Amino acid sequence: MRVRVKGDKGFITIKGIGNASGASRYEWEKEIPVEEVKELLLICEPGVIDKTRYLVKVGEFTFEVDEFYGDNEGLTVAEVELPDENAAFERPDWLGEEVTGDPRYYNSMLMKNPFKNWK
Predict the structure, then answer these.
(1) Full domain range(s) for residue 40
(2) What is the pLDDT of residue 18?
(3) Residues 66, 113: one domain?
(4) C-alpha angle with apex 22: 20 to 25, nearest 5 degrees?
(5) Given this model, what pLDDT does residue 78 score?
(6) 40 with 53, same domain?
(7) Domain shared by 71 and 92, yes or no
(8) Using CA atoms in the order 40, 42, 47, 51, what is the torsion angle rounded to 10 degrees?
(9) CA-CA distance, 97 to 89, in Å (whole number)?
């Protein structure tokens, strides 16, 4: 589960367990009042993921590129939503190593074992 404030809106997101490849999982999101986000944050596990998200259009798809700060400074991750996990897409030159299914890159894991601790 994730709660967050984006601009002047609050959101709650429930993410299911990923499939065997890690490329697909159920996700449900709903807008909620910012005050409810603040209340829910009081009972969540401690930790904050500090990042800027950029939307980068490549061909017919948009990549969500996250640049991390704080304990995850130096990590940049790109994600693209595809209609199915076998869909073909244009791979831009700047796209690096494939990390789909690697739990180290999940936001929940980046709070527990931040990028600064990886060696």
Answers:
(1) 1-44
(2) 72
(3) yes
(4) 95
(5) 97
(6) no
(7) yes
(8) 50
(9) 16
Give the integer Cα–Cα distance in Å for 74 and 66.
Answer: 11
Per-residue pLDDT of the chain (119 residues; tens, 9 = 90+): 788 888 899 999 988 877 766 667 788 999 999 999 999 988 877 777 889 999 999 999 999 999 999 999 999 999 998 988 889 999 999 999 999 889 999 888 998 999 999 98
- What total number of domains does the chain contain? 2
Closest alpha carbon to 109 in 118, 63, 10 = 118
The answer to whether the CB of 100 falls within 8 A of the CB of 22 is yes
- Ramachandran assignment for 81, one of left (phi > 0), alpha (psi -120 to 50 degrees), beta (any other): beta
3-state secondary structure the chain: CEEEEECCEEEEEEECCCCCCCCCCCEEEEEECHHHHHHHHCCCCCCCCCEEEEEEEECCEEEEEEEECHHHCCCEEEEECCCCCCCCCCCCCCCCCCCCCCHHHCHHHHHHCCHHHCC
Which structure tokens are listed for 78?
């790109």
